Amino acid sequence: VPVFKAVTHLPPFLGILLGLGVLWMVGDLMHRDKAEDDKQHLTLVRALARIDMASIVFFVGILLAVAVLEHSHILPALAAWLDQTVGRLDLIVILIGLASAVVDNVPLVAASMGMYDLAQYPSDSFLWEFMAYCAGTGGSILIIGSAAGVAAMGLERIDFMWYARKISLLALLGYAGGAAVYLLQAGLQGV
After folding, report:
1. Which position has the higher pLDDT, 18 or 115?
2. Residue among 44, 29, 174, 158 nearest 101 (CA)
3. C-alpha distances in angstroms, 31 versus 1, 11, 45, 72, 134?
4. Per-residue b or e along 77-93, where b marks 16 or more CB atoms closer than 10 Å to that residue's CB
5. Contact, 103 vs 76, CB < 8 A?
6. What's the pLDDT at 93?
7. Which of 172, 136, 142 is nearest to 159 (CA)?
8. What is the largest CA-CA distance in the chain?
9. Which of 54, 140, 160, 161 is most buried, with most CB under 10 Å away?
């Protein structure tokens, strides 16, 4: 999808739809010689029928909102404000990780990519490695903070309050401990 966007300058969702269309066509071509009963469970229509559409609509809406914020130049302004207000990049990333408990971590990282320039912070820099940890782990503090959590709520009927009472504190402690260890290792390595 990133290559599709870079080459065509079209929104990423069109690349996803193109990929889905190609997948559908290839799947139908692979199974065209099978009997109707044998190939019915192998079709993309059957797979799409099993998808939790509420989760997909949720993520599409969030990603579209992030795209609007990026195109309106609000995300770089937010990064500048965070740099002026907080000052330390490690604390900013920790705060973004905590925010990913409430806002899904996928669009939050997408928003962070719009906030910080890859020319200034290459893909293998401390920022992105620590961001991957903080957003991924911070997203587990609340069940609504990760794609897997939202899907689990829909498919397994996990209650938000049950998760908050039984799991959230453990996830927060794990998040804080992991962040501390990561920062300690980065400090020892001189990053």
Report:
1. 18
2. 174
3. 26, 31, 13, 45, 43
4. eebeebeeeeeebbebb
5. no
6. 92
7. 142
8. 65
9. 140
